[in-house]
Amino acid sequence: MNINQNYNKLEQSYLFSTIAKKVADFSAANPREKIIRMGIGDVTLPLCDAVVRAMQEAVSDMGKKESFHGYGPEQGYDFLKNAVAGYYAQRGIGLDNNEIFISDGAKSDLGNILDLFAVDNTVLIPDPVYPVYVDTNVMAGRTIVYMDANEENGFLPLPDESVRADIIYLCSPNNPTGAVYSHDALKKWVDYALGNHAILLFDAAYEAFISNSELPRSIYEIKGAEKCAIEFCSLSKTAGFTGTRCGYTIVPMTLEAGGASLNHMWLRRQTTKFNGVPYMVQRGAAAVFSKEGQMQTRAAIDYYKENARLIASAMQKMGIWYTGGENSPYIWLKCPDDMTSWEYFDYLLTEKKVVGTPGAGFGKNGEGFFRLTAFGDRENTAEAVKRLLS
Ligand code: PLP
């Protein structure tokens, strides 16, 4: 019996366990101190009314013989695909329902999509980055090349013609840096991918946080992307679905690699290994795209964005360099006084009783940087900002 030895190559992630231990130790030693947590990437506001009602009705459907739903289409019900297509159509992007695949979230799809590509492809991944891109490729045994995201390029690396890659990950708005690519920058990536027969894996999980209409919210706003890009999106941060689980992946019909249709391959993969998202969840997801659902989810996003604005304005007042915060729920800041990420973590915890995430946990270029999130509640965020400024 041989196991997949690539699992031994995975770096142990001590990031969140170390944070938890440091916070627990500090709390035990200082039981009266109120600690404010701004490290989590999870949402805190509940599902909106429109979603709750749609899900309640769907539960009731399931309890009646005439409206019961058993196995559904693996790639999602048409009522939800129509809603997603309508959402893209508002931005002038025409999608066929066959190009939309409903799933239980972006994380699964980001990992599973790798089934479509040979192990000997080279993968290009920005550093720092959402760790799932790296770990899923290490598990498969693929060669990873990193591109530096840093202060000089505003944490938005552009293609380097001297680097050859087959699979390229882009995340905009970015986790952890909150940085957002412009049309021009994404056009460079699309041109690079087309010129090198590479595939872009575009993670748009935070697209709903973009309010600047000049910034692209989908890779398909860039001409040519339909021939080189797959887009992953999620209702987790858009509509509070982190615990409800629903996302969607777009694989254009025009996307070919090695003479094969990636859309057909993904359909084959999903129908073979996945049995679809629960009917109740898909009904709730469809409600996100209703007029009422859009208004209500927008209110939650605006709430988080106001938190982000408060944190970003504190950075400005403190003269700290940062990215994000405007079109993203993350603020990525440069640790003051040349502190390392963990030194700044300890300083914030002990002096300000505020918890964030050390940037070093997201890759080597994250050292010396720090992530604060806007997903907390207003009162705590305002109190944290007050403490930071004191
Ligand atoms: N992509 C990015 C960049 C994320 O930060 C996250 C979650 O934090 C995900 C994908 C996962 O999304 P989902 O909850 O849909 O699996």
User: Would you tell me the overall average pLDDT?
Assistant: 97
Number of strands: 15
What is the approximate shape? globular
Main beta sheet strand tally, sense and closure? 7 strands, mixed
Order of helices and strands: HEHHEHEHEEHEEHEEEHHHEEHEEEH
Oligomer: single chain
Helix % is 25-40%
Please work out how many helical segments DSSP would assign.
12
What is the CA-based Rg, rounded? 21 Å
Taking the alpha carbons of the first and last residues, their distance comes to: 60 Å
Write out the distinct hetero groups bound to the structure: pyridoxal-5'-phosphate
As residue ranges, the low-confidence spans are: none
Read across the widest sheet, the strand sequence of neighbours is: 2-8-7-6-5-3-4
Q: Determine the strand fraction and express it as a percent band.
A: 15-25%
Structural class, by secondary structure, is alpha/beta
